[in-house]
Structures are given as structure tokens and as C-alpha cells.
Amino acid sequence: MWIEILCGLVIYRLFRRFFFDDGKILSVETSDSQALFSVASRLEKLYGGKSYVGLRIPDPDTGSRQNIDLVLVARGKAVVISVKNLAGFVSVNADGSWSCLSDHKRKTTEHHPNPIMQARMTVSILEEYIQRRGVTLPEGYFSCKVIVPNPKFCAIGSNQFPPEVITYEQWAHMKPESKNMLSDWFRGTFQRGTKEMKESIHQELNFILSTAPMWDRLELKGNKYVLGEFMEFKGRQEDIQALRNVRRSQVGRLIIQKTSMFGLAPSNLHVLYTLRDYRSEGASASEWMEMTVSSSTEILFLLQNSSKVRKFKLSSLVSMSLSV
């Protein structure tokens, strides 16, 4: 009897692995990336506008790219937001840096540079980048904030945190009508100028940010996101040959759709992709192209803030976005 049970379990696991593995979310660290997209989504719902997540803005002074968590753009106002997904007891030091005592069993203290100073620096770099793209913003158009969305965040001496910081408790109770939160961020921002001037700057800014360098992103099943850098495809030679045209210089986004054998086992994948067109946002239905590859095809992806390259089955993804 036990032999039959064990054999049944082995067969079940093999069945799940080979026939339904594409529904499994790979065990990767998505918490930080997920926090960015969750904050961006909630801000759009609360205050409208458009959020741009995972920007990588070129910095001529250092010759590198400056990471910006997200930028929220609404009518006549914009905010650069740093998301600190910290868990533990956090205090502010005399120099403005933060100390975070982990709430795990092994107590460790992490030190973080002054988040406000870092956010202000990214504002300056972003403003210079926008000016190089041909748009001069009114003084003070951008403000900056730091949001801590982790429910395990505990502020020690909350009155020591500057007003630019939105702690988890404040974030959890934020509402559209809140006058002491995001509404104050925008107060006094670009109040001068005609309606036409404001509308022009709003459109130009959205265009610049939508075409700015960003981290590549994977959308996994279960509404999970991963930021990083796409490296290459791995799989059968015929599948790699079919995917040869998927290069970041030509393709901006892929959408992965399943096919099945006898309505049961995933066999092949339909990959939809669109060629880049900087003249407009998105693509019409007629611009989407299609190919078919094996469900065993994988991609190599370098995770953000990591030196580790991870493998993802193409069948575990909903989409992949590539930046220039």
C-alpha cells in the first residue's frame, strides 16, 4: 500500500513539473521590485497621473546611470519618490542617515545613507537630463519624497523623521482627501503660467520619461514583477533562431501566451512582440508580430542590485519589457 502511495506522489510531482510548471512562480526575490510597483499603482489610484518605475538616468558627472525608484507626474506637478522597503526598528542619526535594526531572529543593524539627500540628488540629475532632452522646467517643478511601505517598519522617534518621509503608518492611512500628505507635496508647484503652457510641459515631460532608460522588467504570473537586465534566450536551436529578432534596439515588449496539447499540457508558446516606435506610445493591434517557441525556452536575467544571473522559463512569464 505504501509503495503505491509513494509511487503516486512521485508520478504527481513529475506530472506537475512537466505539465503545469509554467504556473509556478520561480522563487526569486521580488519584494523590493514588487514594493515599487505597488506604491506606483496606489499613488495613481489615489491622486491620478502617471507613474514611471525603475528609471536609469544617465549622469554625465559620474559617467554612470542614476537609479530612480519612481516618478509621479500629474497635471502641473511631479514628484521623485524613493521607496525604502525596510523592515525593523529604524532611527534617524545626527547626520540624517538611518539605522535599521532587523526584526529577524538574528539581530543585525543596517546603515543607510541619508535618503532625503539621495532623493534631492536624483531630482537634480533628472532635471538636467530633461533639460538635455530640450525641456526647461520651471524652478521647483519637482519635489521629492521617501515612502516606507513595509508593514514591518517601526519608526523609533517618529518626530525625528523629516516631513519628506512618509512612514508606513502614514502610508497605510493615506487617502485622496488627505491634505497633509501628497496634496502638500504639490502645493505651490508650478502655479504660474497659462493653461496651455502647463499642458505643453505635461505632455513633453510624459514623453521624455516614457522614452527614458529604465530597468528591464519581467511580469510574472501572480502580479509579480522583477527588475534587472535581460541577457539572452536559452533553448532549442530552432527556438533561438525564431527569437533572433528580439533585440532591445528593435523590440520594446513581449507578451507570452500559452498553447496546449489536447487542452491539458502546455506544449508551445505564442510570443507577441512589437517593434519600437518613438513617435507614439504603445502599438496598435496591426503592429504586433507573432512567433511560436517551445515552452521549455528560458531567458537569462540579471537581477537589479545583484551580480547573480537567474533563469526564468518563458512559460512562467506574462510579459517582458526591454529598455533602450
Taken as a percent bin, the fraction of beta residues is: 25-35%
Q: Could you name the CATH class of the largest domain? A: Alpha Beta
- What's the Cα radius of gyration? 23 Å
* Tally of individual domains: 2
Outline the fold blueprint.
Blueprint: H1 2-19, H2 31-47, E1 50-59, E2 64-74, E3 77-83, E4 88-92, E5 98-101, E6 109-112, H3 115-132, E7 142-147, E8 153-155, E9 165-166, H4 168-172, H5 182-186, H6 195-210, E10 216-220, E11 224-234, H7 237-242, E12 251-261, E13 265-275, E14 288-294, E15 298-303, E16 309-313, E17 317-321
Parallel strand pairs: 3-7, 4-8, 7-9
Antiparallel strand pairs: 1-2, 2-3, 4-5, 5-6, 10-11, 10-17, 11-15, 12-13, 12-17, 13-14, 15-16
Descriptive labels:
Trna Endonuclease, Chain: A, domain 1; 2 domains; five-stranded mixed sheet; 7 helices
Model description:
Helices cover 26% and strands 35% of the residues. By secondary structure, it is an alpha+beta fold. The chain has two domains: 31-210, Trna Endonuclease, Chain: A, domain 1, CATH 3.40.1350; 216-321, no CATH class. The strands form three sheets. It has an eight-stranded antiparallel β-sheet. A five-stranded mixed β-sheet has the order 1-2-3-7-9, with helices on both faces. It has a four-stranded mixed β-sheet with strand order 6-5-4-8, with no helix packed on it. Strand 5 (98-101) and strand 6 form a beta hairpin. It is globular, with a radius of gyration of 23 Å. Pfam families: NERD.
